[in-house]
Amino acid sequence: AIGSTRVTARRVNHVPDVVTLGFRIEDAAGGSLAYIPDVEYLEQGHRDQTLELAAGVDMLIHDAHQTTDEYPARRGRGHSSVQDAVEIARQARARHLVLFHHHPDRSDSAIDDLLRSCDSVGLRVDAAREGAEYTM
User: Fold this and answer.
1) 22-76, pLDDT tens digit by residue?
2) 3-state secondary structure of 16
3) Helix (H) or strand (E) holding 22
4) Residues 6 or more apart from 92 whose CB is under 8 A from it?
5) Is residue 11 a contact partner of residue 49, using CB atoms and an 8 Å limit?
6) What is the sign, positive or negative, of the torsion defined by CA atoms of 108, 114, 116, 121?
7) Beta carbons of 20 and 13 less than 8 angstroms apart
8) Which residues pair with 60 in a beta bridge?
9) Cα–Cα distance measured from residue 1 to residue 119, given in angstroms and rounded to the nearest whole number
10) Which residues, 6+ apart, have CB-to-CB distance to 99 below 8 Å?
11) Of 20, 37, 46, 53, which residue is most buried, by most CB within 10 angstroms?
12) Measured over all CA atoms, what is the biggest interatomic distance in the chain, rounded to whole angstroms?
């Protein structure tokens, strides 16, 4: 606890022998955020760790380093696809998904295309960008 804010940290799967933590932050007024960096879902247990942190959050900030098409060739590198992030957000019933940790070779235009591909997923999806601010 930090004042009226509660922070929960849990280990999430990245790569072997590297400890990576995801976080859930809740305030006394009921606002909640989950931050899930550098995560890959190689088995159901890895999803369960994230779902515990993200359950019902107002905002989920989730690794989206790869596209769905790129993922098979990069499996085991410790990062998620955009589709993984969307599926976790849906299962967790997050109200707002913010995709981040974009691949460094991905252009702004390509990120805009990824966002358009999320138009029909049934939840608010944004791409993180420097200087963005969100009010919860």
Assistant:
1) 999 999 999 999 999 999 999 999 999 999 999 999 999 999 988 889 889 999 9
2) coil
3) strand 20-26
4) 34, 50, 51, 54, 55, 56, 57, 60
5) yes
6) negative
7) yes
8) 34, 97
9) 37
10) 62, 64, 82, 85, 114, 115, 125, 126, 127, 128
11) 53
12) 45
Other CB atoms within 10 Å distance of the CB of residue 132 = 10
Q: What is the DSSP letter of 3?
A: T
For residue 126, give the amino acid letter. D
Tokens of 40: 């890959």
Q: What is the CA radius of gyration of the chain?
A: 14
Per the structure block, which two tokens stand in for 42?
């190689």
Q: Where are the alpha helices (DSSP H) in 9-129?
A: 44-54, 71-74, 82-92, 108-117
Query: 3-state DSSP: the chain helix, strand, coil percent, rounded to 5?
Result: 25, 25, 45
